[in-house]
């Protein structure tokens, strides 16, 4: 649960033995998202109004999706400095 890596080899999922198959990678990603989702559910239970938990979950999901969209767009754009330095093929 710390911020310094984790996993069996202190590299979380960067080590090749951590997730040998795409299925195990998907299971790990779902497990990583289970805790934040459970927190919003638990908040709704403690508040006595489950709709508050769903509202919190929806707000967090909207922020996540907007962040992923911005990240995806910037990653697809590429680095213009590297594009200028790339050798041209003739």
Quick structural gist:
With 90 residues, the protein is an all-alpha fold. The protein has helices at 22-47, 50-77, 80-85.
Describe this structure in words.
The protein contains three helices and no strands. The chain has 90 residues and is mainly α. The model has no long low-confidence stretch (mean pLDDT 83).
Compute the average pLDDT: 83
Span of the ends, CA to CA: 52 Å
The fraction of residues in strands falls at under 5%
Query: pLDDT under 50 segments (min length 5)?
Result: none
Shape: flat
Please state the structural category: mainly alpha
Record the SSE blueprint:
Blueprint lengths: L21 H26 L2 H28 L2 H6 L5
Helix pairs in contact: 1-2
Describe this protein with a few key phrases:
90 residues; 3 helices; mainly alpha
């Amino acid at each position: 649960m710390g911020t310094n890596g984790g996993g069996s080899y202190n590299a979380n999922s960067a080590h090749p033995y951590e997730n040998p198959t795409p299925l195990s990678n998907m299971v790990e990603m779902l497990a990583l998202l289970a805790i934040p989702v459970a927190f919003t559910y638990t908040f709704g239970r403690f508040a006595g109004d489950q709709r508050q938990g769903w509202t919190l979950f929806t707000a967090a999901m909207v922020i996540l999706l907007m962040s992923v969209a911005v990240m995806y767009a910037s990653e697809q754009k590429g680095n213009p400095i590297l594009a200028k330095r790339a050798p041209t093929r003739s």
